[in-house]
Amino acid sequence: MRRQYVLSLLILVFSLTGVAQEEAGCSAGELAQQQSTLASFLALDFAADIDAALANLFRLGALYQSMALQCGYAPNEVEVDRLLEQALMFASLEDLIAAQSVGSDVGAILLELDEVYGDPLQGQLLYNGLEPALSGTALGCSGCHENEAVAPLTAGTWTRVNDIRLALPQFADYSHRQFLVESVVQPMAYITPDYAGMMPEFYGGQLTVQQLADLVAFLDSQDQFLQDG
Q1: Selected residue with higher pLDDT from 11 and 188
Q2: So where are the chain's domains?
Q3: Which residues, 6+ apart, have CB-to-CB distance to 22 below 8 Å?
Q4: Residue of 201, 174, 175 whose CA lies nearest to 188
């Protein structure tokens, strides 16, 4: 797995729930103020209550790491390896991947996508297996969707959805994005007739919100003219 994906997973493990952190500022003064505020809020009085102090020590470490990452710090190889070792003491790699993946709840995914800009060029790389998915493996999209006997062709995806799929009664209330998202994370919800292939149902567990946004943006760029349905 590439280090940037490992690091994004590790941030989840060390993120703090229950303590609000305002949008981080990265000037020297703002960082000093944040550090001072956190240190006073999460006191380290080991003599008074060692258990509470240890909990605060852990939480401070997580918040300080988050501040550094948000302000552009790039951990070195040794630091990333140590974070990975610590994370795997408490959760399996599969758990970390699952925590970062979009899952299969289409409604929740659509809300998340409203906050994300999709890059069609990055989506094309993912689609063609030239960039790894969340698990570090290549997606198999192009292997099926470049063979018209197996699955609908990539070319014309936007046009096909807009002109044909959304005209079907069961998709009367669907948006274009909703149809594409459901097709990726819940492919068995609608099976396109007359194709030999069957799309697997695990892609929701292999993609981050950003990666799914990129894929949808790439598919939205496929507005070629259709010769048939």
Answers
A1: 188
A2: 3-100, 106-220
A3: none
A4: 201
